[in-house]
From TrEMBL:
GO molecular function: alpha-1,4-glucosidase activity
Reactions accelerated catalytically: Hydrolysis of terminal, non-reducing (1->4)-linked alpha-D-glucose residues with release of alpha-D-glucose
Entry's Gene Ontology BP terms: carbohydrate metabolic process
Top-level taxon of the source organism: Eukaryota
PANTHER family assigned: ALPHA-AMYLASE FAMILY MEMBER, NEUTRAL AND BASIC AMINO ACID TRANSPORT PROTEIN RBAT
Gene3D superfamilies documented for this protein: Glycosidases (3.20.20.80), Oligo-1,6-glucosidase, Domain 2 (3.90.400.10)
Domain (Glycosyl hydrolase family 13 catalytic): residue spans on this chain: 1-268
InterPro entries, alphabetized: GH, GH13_cat_dom, O16G_dom_2
Family annotation (Pfam families): Alpha-amylase (PF00128)
EC assignment: 3.2.1.20
Stated name of the protein: alpha-glucosidase
C-alpha cells in the first residue's frame, strides 16, 4: 500500500487494491466507501452542485458527517505509532492521525460550503444551516466555526459532555466544560450541547441513570442549540447485543473476542414506544438489532 494508514473501523489498511484499474484506492471507512479526492476541482464542483440541488428543493440545513476526514496529506506520509495500550497494530487507534485528519484544506472547503448556503440566505431572506461532526482536539474543533469575516459551520458538534463526563465527574467539571466552550468559541458564534449520539455509550450508561434528567435540564437551559439522541430522554441504557447479533463493522472487524470494546450496536437499538409486541417499534418477527 502507498502508506501505513488504517481504516477507522479497525479493518487494517485504509488502502484497497483494484485489479481492474491496477491501482490502490483509499477508504478511511469501509471498503465499499471509497474516499473522494477533494483536491480534484471536479469533485468539489459536484459537491457544490449537490448542495444547490437540495437547497433548490427547500432543504433548510445540512449535517456534515466526519468532516475532519475530508482531506489527507498529498505526500501520503506514514502516521506515527500512538503507543496506546490495548490496541493491535491493525486497530485504528494504534496510530496518531497526523496525515488523515483535520488537514488545513478541510477548513477551507467548509468555509466554501458556508458561502453556498449564505448565497441562498441572501436570496430567500432565510438562514440555511450547517453543522459539522468532528472528534477533533478542542482547538481544531473551534476552527470549524471560522470567524466573522470568513464563517465556517454554524457550529461543530460540542462533544465535551460525551468525551469528558463520566461516572466520576462532578458539578465543578460540568461548570468547567460549559465555560470552556462558551469562552473558547470565536466571537459572535453559536454554542451547542450534545449529551449523546450513535457512536458512544448512552448517557445513562456512561454516567448514572439518576443524573439523566438533571443533565438534560442543564443542556436545555444553556444558551444555544441542544442535541438529544433518541431514547436518552427516556433514560435508555446500552442494550446487551451478542456477537451473533452484531452488525456494526467496527465490532465485526475485530472478531468475537474483542467486539464489545468497539461495537456501537448497544446504543443503536430500537426505541420503545409502548408495552406491546417489540415495544411498538415493529411487527416484524426479527429486528435489525434486539430491544
Amino acid at each position: 500500500p502507498p502508506s501505513n494508514w488504517l481504516g477507522v473501523f479497525n479493518s487494517g489498511s485504509a488502502w484497497e487494491w483494484n485489479e481492474e484499474r491496477q491501482q490502490y484506492y483509499l477508504h478511511q471507512f469501509q471498503v465499499k466507501q471509497p474516499d473522494l479526492n477533494y483536491r480534484n476541482p471536479s469533485v468539489r464542483e459536484e459537491i457544490k452542485n449537490t448542495l444547490l440541488y437540495w437547497l433548490g428543493r427547500g432543504v433548510d440545513g445540512f449535517r456534515f458527517d466526519a468532516v475532519n476526514y475530508l482531506y489527507e496529506r498529498e505526500d501520503l506520509a506514514d502516521e506515527p505509532k500512538s503507543n496506546k495500550i490495548g490496541y493491535l497494530d491493525t486497530d485504528y487507534d494504534s496510530l496518531t492521525h497526523t496525515s488523515t485528519l483535520d488537514q488545513p484544506e478541510t477548513y477551507t472547503i467548509v468555509r466554501q460550503w458556508r458561502q453556498v448556503l449564505d448565497s441562498y440566505r441572501t436570496r430567500e431572506k432565510k438562514t440555511k444551516f450547517m453543522m459539522v461532526e468532528c472528534y477533533s482536539p478542542f482547538n481544531k474543533t473551534m476552527m470549524y466555526y471560522g470567524n466573522n469575516s470568513e464563517p465556517g459551520a454554524h457550529f461543530p458538534f460540542n462533544f465535551l459532555f460525551i468525551g469528558t463526563f463520566d461516572q466520576q465527574s462532578d458539578a465543578a467539571q460540568v461548570h468547567d466544560m460549559i465555560r470552556s466552550w462558551m469562552y473558547g468559541m470565536p466571537t459572535g458564534m453559536w454554542p451547542n450541547w450534545v449529551l449523546g449520539n450513535h457512536d458512544n455509550a448512552r448517557v445513562a450508561s456512561r454516567t448514572n441513570p439518576m443524573l439523566v434528567d438533571g443533565l438534560h435540564m442543564i443542556q436545555h437551559l444553556l444558551p444555544g442549540t441542544s442535541v438529544t439522541y433518541y431514547g436518552d430522554e427516556l433514560g435508555m441504557i446500552d442494550t446487551n447485543v451478542r456477537w451473533d447479533q452484531t452488525v456494526d463493522p467496527a465490532g465485526l472487524n475485530v472478531g468475537p473476542y474483542r467486539f464489545l470494546k468497539f461495537s456501537r450496536d448497544p446504543v443503536r437499538t430500537p426505541f420503545p414506544w409502548d408495552n406491546s409486541y417489540n415495544a411498538g417499534f415493529s411487527n416484524s418477527s426479527s429486528l435489525w438489532l434486539p430491544l
